[in-house]
Queue: 4 jobs
Job 1
Amino acid sequence: MIPRYSRPQMSSIWDPETRFRIWFEIEAHALDAMAELGIVPKEAAEAVWARGKFEVERIDAIEAEVKHDVIAFLTNVAEHVGPEARFLHQGMTSSDVLDTCLAVQLTRAADLLIEDMDGLLEVLKRRAFEHRMTPTIGRSHGIHAEPVTFGLKLAFAYAEFERGRARLVAAREEIATCAISGAVGTFANVDPRVEEYVAAKLGLKVEPVSTQVIPRDRHAMFFATLGVIASSIERLATEVRHLQRTEVLEAEEYFSAGQKGSSAMPHKRNPILTENLTGLARMVRAYVLPTFENVALWHERDISHSSAERYIGPDATVTLDFALARLTGVMDKLLIYPERMQKNLDRMGGLVHSQRVLLALTQAGAAREDAYRLVQRNAMQVWQSDGALSLLELLKADPEVSALLPPQQLEESFDLGYHLKHVDTIFERVFGGA
């Protein structure tokens, strides 16, 4: 987690002050529950809320001596509360605090990421409708295939991120669990009602069975979801990068006044933001594998997961938050060139209509193998001429083709609108009645 790729609202979830504040609330709420159950004096709970506070530097100093972060925190709080602090952490274990805190942090992070997704979806939808019928060439294997529209490209991205949002909502629901079950998770020294009380106060659900930690399959699923979203970011970023290549130049990142693309070549306008997004997506995905490995802990617990999670939680959420915001900005300001799209669409002498001719020939009675041979032999001439020749004119001059298809029917096979007739149907599927 570095400042260059961090936004304050997400970063603040992971700063020490926030973490210790959540710890304090967990401990204080647990003490309230115990006081209501008559396990500890009510005065103790009141004293903790009234006088309880902490200092990050003091906690760090105590931890340097005791080598235990939760003990250091409790010691610091006790310095302010006084004798009543002896009732803090009754029957609890460190994981009750650490895991419940992590659940709170990940839930808050998920809420911000869902907001990010909403912002991106809004931009993608607006731009998709803006270019719903803007024709462009569809490519398979990087090679011209058949016509599509730029709006369809964006509709595809919208549907993908909409799925990602739904997965993130589900992942948030799954990670939002509270464990206040004590050593090895048996509730031997802490009443299960304490867990229920703390969970309600923090907006969490109780963990049905927590051993001594919240099961890490929940965390693996959460971060796997972030990894999938990161991959969707990279897919769209890669599309923009390809479209910005000089030979293509159908769209490009916004280039602001005064911006410079190269230290050596003044003419350069590089896709630096989408290249950056590709790298950030790789980092988010890189954090997924350790979360899978964290699932297999020894018996009721060990802390082999702990050091990894201290990186993963902040870095993955902060990085994805930044990446989603950056992608939203890229797509909002993306420069789109319909004239260049049309030029590229016409670039190869009508080859993009070859399937339509193939189908027309079969409808006219030709065997599919023969129809394919007839179209391909003319198409290869166009290909080898680098688009200088016209497929339509070659087909008209081919006696075997013209014997089956008159000129007017051949011309109809080169109608661009034919390929776009179901765009509205696809938009209806993606966006509904909007």
Job 2
Amino acid sequence: MSELSLNHPGGAVGAAPAAASNGSADHFYMTREHHPENGTLLGFWLYLMSDCLVFAVLFACYGVLGRSYAAGPSGAELFELPLVALNTSLLLLSSITYGFAMLEMQKRRKGAVLMWLFITGLFGAGFLGIELYEFAHLIHEGAGPQRSAFLSSFFTLVGTHGLHVTFGIVWLITLMVQVSKHGLIAANRRRLMCLSMFWHFLDVVWIGVFTFVYLMGVLK
């Protein structure tokens, strides 16, 4: 009789361990935290630091090669400062509009967040359009990256920054889709914070490019 109650799936003695086992399993999987708090932001900071090293190397290369014209045109002959100033203004304005998006995110205003993200994307697209126009104009004038070490380092540094802005716009569009579908949930707010750090980082790098490459480049 005792063997039947132990082996039978509906027996009282056999059911108690099963219930205890199920209860402990549910408790483990529902309450245990597998990821450290703010781990995503910490990891993204580490990525930005590695990106700083990439741009530091590119700036160093330009510093060494920036006066090697190989009897070709110099920055003073090629750069159009009014156009570059307009491009710089677009990127700085995009940083301001992204800040407005973050303020609206704190207020949980989904529509306002999407609006400011859209404006930020427009400014970023305008920046890329002017940069591509500049590259096309230089190549058309025979000042492509193969013309001299100066132009090779210039195209590499400025082009790498432009590639980062392109990825940032793709990320921005993806986040706009996520926010419109799922709202300002915790995961989307965390992603918006990461993109905010990335976007402002690109602004800081561009200020260095504008000063070190363009402004100093027009000095004879």
Job 3
Amino acid sequence: MTGEVPGGGAGGARDAASGPRPAGRGPRDQRPRALIVTLYGLYAREAGGWLSVSSVIRLLAHCQADGPAVRSAIFRLKRRGLLEPARVDGVAGYGLSVEARAILDEGDRRIFARRRAAAGDGWLLAVFSVPESERDQRHRLRSRLAWLGFGTVSAGVWIAPGHLLGETRDVLRRHGLDRYVELFRGGHAAFAPTAERVPQWWDLPRLRGLYADFLDRYGPVLAAYRRAGGPAGEPGGAAGEPGEAAAFADYLAALTDWRRLPYAEPGLPAEVLPADWNGFRAADTFFGLRDLLAGPAHRFAAGALAGRPDQPAR
């Protein structure tokens, strides 16, 4: 699963007076396209990569995405070559393309590994020069490097933590951009301390804002689940409505908002970040939600997908 495809918005519930949002409820500001990518990344691959249109609509109704918007988003993903139409037992649906599978597999390693570089791991430099006659390729290359989380040292020299070498090499090759680039690994030798240079290479205020939005939205959700002892209706959870549907909606939303953040900030060494870096707390929040919600969310999705695929959507 990855941030290479369009990400959902990370707007937060900023009204502190309203208190924590009850788990499984509240407005969603995420685009259906981003939710569909997350849904396929989580559950379609274990089902052969195919989901019926009606099941996608039915599941995303729990995230307050309406049917026409979901159908339109599926069509746009098809047009981008990420989904391919297919009928299974006469039921209309879409499967993952080869490219989409590769993107999702790469994304799993970035999003779920929680990898953070150490100061001694070194840096990866991408040095490139693209002829003026190929300006479109220069734009594509810069876009790919930015998506991978590279910072900018100068116009043709970009930098990332050293552990991104394999992923960078694979992505640039897949997009036919490797012929413009040379990759180097090494240490920062001089002249200023690295911690002073990092804010010049990466837009740390922007990254801090992205993490703050995530914490504003999902910190209260995690706190509410912890107070309740887990999703309602789960073993050890509070009494109330069955919790799997709520867990599914909250986990899908959290992962949709989280999956772009390990790309925006690619695991920079803690030693070169501010001591109060809120990215650490954001990661704790996401993985706390994953620990609580991934299991019941999976059971809910599996149950929904095991039903009749042509049942009317909600």
Job 4
Amino acid sequence: MSSNKGLYRFNQMMFPRHLLRLIGSSSAFFLLLSGASLHAATLPPGFTEGLVATGLTNATAMSFSPDGRLFVCQQAGALRVISNGTLLPTPFTTVATSATGERGLLGVTFDPNFASNRFVYVYYTAATPATHNRVSRFTASIADPNVAEPGSEVAILDLDDLSGATNHNGGAIHFGPDGKLYVAVGENANPANAQTVGNRLGKLLRVNADGTIPADNPLTFPGIAGSPTGANRAIWAVGLRNPYTFAFQPGTGRMFINDVGASTWEEINDGIVASNYGWSICEGACTPPNGNFRDPLFQYDHVIGATGGCAIVGGAFYNPPVNQFPASYVGKYFFGDLCSGWIRVMDPSNNTASDFASAIATPVDVQIGPEGSLYYLIRGGTGQVWKVSSTTPATPTPTPTSTPTPTKTPTPSATSTTTPATPTPPPTATPTVTPTPTPVVTPTPSATPAPAAQALNLSTRLRVQTGDNVGIAGFIITGTAPKHLLLRALGPTLFVEFDSDRLADPVLELHRPSAATITNDNWRDDPVQEAAILATGLQPNNNLESAIDVTLNPGTYTAVIRGRNNTGGRGVVEIYDLSQAVLAKLANISTRAFVSTGEDIVIAGFILGGQTGNDRIVVRGIGPSLTALGVTNALANPTLELRDSNGALLIANNDWQDNLGQAAELTAAGLAPTNTLESGIAATLPPGQYTVLLAGLNNGTGVGLVEVYDRGRP
């Protein structure tokens, strides 16, 4: 067993030796593990907590399934399920594992297509044929999704054999926004492992869902000679000690990696492909600086107390589908410390951290629930899950999310598509092709239903070209009151898969009737706008991205996204409703763009929330009728797919009259397309995140229009 301070242990000696000396006796140590965990945490004013479940012996990690259940790993091998606030007596599965030291069942995640394939992935220490860490896939039973199908385990990734050291195993696993599985692996208490591409220890790995290795994984890493070969081609980043937890930010795809330190620093690192994080040459930021190594975004020392500790745990961005916390928390990153027993919150805009919760005995994981509450997992005592909620939540604020990458489209190659050209003024566009929705008169029900959810966010991912093929998004505000909105144009922070194909420097324009056009290049250009954007908590993560904070009267508007100096690439245009309570709503977005194939179809995303009732949505895919409006090369035969937050297909449509029921609803809403080859979908949906895919039939290409209408309560 290593003599280093700050070792992250999961057995009864999991505290570092310097803390054990402070405790002074084994009886005091066990008192800290058992009794103290029953005490409520100290929370900020306006927050409360409640016990969700207890009886989770030696818990190590937890994760929410796409359908809202909470799965909890127990070190000895049982994967437990909490459903509707109840810990089920039968584990989902129990793996045969070596659970000495920091080994055991350490991580769980869910396939992006879980709704259709029911795949659950776990990371654990296998004892045969030699002791090593493994990622396995299980399939949930059709008859009872709370247990795995017998015999369904498939080992998709067997890692390097372990030495006699039982610590530094990592264990976190998550699917990224690119649909790939990311796996955090410790260096097995051998620091030299972190600075070689000859094994997969001390690394962050990236594999396909079946365990095969993506062809676009990096071939070189700064400061390390040679290239990984064979199984080591799974390496995505190097130089890590014990990355026990990491997290992706919903929407932006940004990754933070928590690396447990040795004797000096705990780290939060920016997860960027082909990075070397410096262990064991540096712990914390390198002194003097070393150009080969990526320093942490944030680090804290090993002084046990309010801001120091011994082992960083948890890690979750506050970007839920519906914001239950005050809006100031949106986009922030929660993390905890095992020894000091606190949870703090980091602001990624300036990489500073502030206090959130304390007096928590042995927290080991932190997650954000789908309803917007914060959950933390206690390892000590009986093992518990606690839920922290705001007692005075603000009006729900949408998650800053670009639309999910659909799983049916291939991963693009990292090739630049930016083409400098003679600057051409962008078109001053108005959404004349988007009719204002006609109100539908419905009879008053005998019982008042729950208020309908409404569109909190509308966004479109598209390929931004030049001339008439820049991105043009028309939107409609209905009602009687002014509406506070945030518009964003993103490019540099899109998913890492896009690489140089991202729009490098987006420019955003807001065209208003009878008023001057508002233009923004970089969101921090105007100090007044910068302050207003920061106050929303939805500021872009790259200074080259664009945003406009504005209050608009009901009416029709157009947002244009283009590349600075007539460059091109994939971008996202987004509209956030920041004042859902006023008597107005964001009723429509209609985005015109060039529809290509593969990753370059047009993808519209929307978030419904704010209330608990269902909302009526109409989606249209327009192509042929654009020709009459002067659009050349219109998409000849558009197709639509509506998918949920897991990427599962809900409704598909080619020609809008194919389904007589759907056609009748589109006609009744006054939104029937004028060409029989165009597409339409009418759907009643609960609150949540959704994606619409606009493509051409048989890989057809051309200029198309995707429209999303919020029709209100069904």
